[in-house]
Amino acid sequence: MNFTFKRGEIVAIIGGIGAGKSSLMYSLLGEMKYKENLPKPRVSVNGTISLVTQKPWIVNDTVRNNITFGKPYNKKKYEEVIHYACLKRDFELFTHGDKTMIGEKGATLSGGQKARISFARSLYSESDILLLDDLLSAVDVHVGKFLMTESLLQYSRSKTRVLITHALYYLKYVDKVLILENGRIVEQGNYEMIRNSNRFKEIYSSMMKDEKKSRSDSISLLEL
């Protein structure tokens, strides 16, 4: 597997379940094992990295401390970050705003809140590279569009952004798309280049089936 992400690019990684998307991200961090009898892999990273995992890491502390995470509190920067992570409304609903204590492993938060707090932390860290593992699937469509068009494309435009996503309608916003299959890159290029490939059509068809099933299950639950 050979690839290069240019500084300031926004790259999407797509593929079926088990294709190796998350493993690719962890390999960029040097967190993947490799077979000793094979040539040692080389990963060259120019800059600092922040990772937003599929299951966001939350500590038992205040919301604010989960975002600043040991860095000095900068009011202007902090307010920018909570705006671009769509957290202002959540803070209004929390009992003590951003001073509210979060339960163990974020037990008191919804999945979307955990994801956006973790995203806010990555923005506050001012890292050069953002690795985002399926962030947009944890939020609703309106928030997802804001995070993509305002937070990632505009506010973070100087950063290199690598995004695993199952929401294929966001691919039109990215510079490059990688399609993974069985731990290999089988297609790469811009959206216009890959959208008509057979592999993309297969992924699109599979994801549309899953989305329809999810909607059907939701309707069934509402009927009950």
The proportion of strand residues reads 5-15%
Widest sheet: strand ordering: 2-3-4-1-5-6
Can you tell me the CATH class?
Alpha Beta
Figure out the total of helices: 8
What CATH architecture do you see?
3-Layer(aba) Sandwich
Helix and strand run: EHEHHHHEHEEEHH
CATH 4th-level superfamily: P-loop containing nucleotide triphosphate hydrolases
Counting helices, strands and paired strands, the structural category is alpha/beta
General form: globular
Largest sheet: 6 strands, mixed
> CATH topology, what is it called?
Rossmann fold
Number of domains: 1
β-strand number: 6
Low-confidence stretches: 214-224
Ends: how far apart?
48 Å
Calculate the mean pLDDT score and round it. Answer: 88
Computed CA radius of gyration, to the nearest angstrom: 18 Å
Helix content: 25-40%
Spell out the blueprint of helices and strands:
Elements: E1 10-15, H1 21-28, E2 49-52, H2 63-68, H3 75-84, H4 88-93, H5 111-124, E3 129-133, H6 141-155, E4 160-164, E5 176-181, E6 184-189, H7 191-194, H8 198-223
Parallel strand pairs: 1-4, 1-5, 2-3, 3-4
Antiparallel strand pairs: 5-6
Helix pairs in contact: 3-5
Name the descriptors.
224 residues; alpha/beta; 40% helix; Rossmann fold
Describe this structure in words.
This protein is an alpha/beta fold and 224 residues long. It has one domain (10-223): 3-Layer(aba) Sandwich (Rossmann fold), CATH 3.40.50. The protein has helices spanning 21-28, 63-68, 75-84, 88-93, 111-124, 141-155, 191-194, 198-223; strands at 10-15, 49-52, 129-133, 160-164, 176-181, 184-189. It has a six-stranded mixed beta sheet with strand order 2-3-4-1-5-6, sandwiched between helices. The longest helix has 26 residues, at 198-223. The model is unreliable at 214-224 (pLDDT under 50).
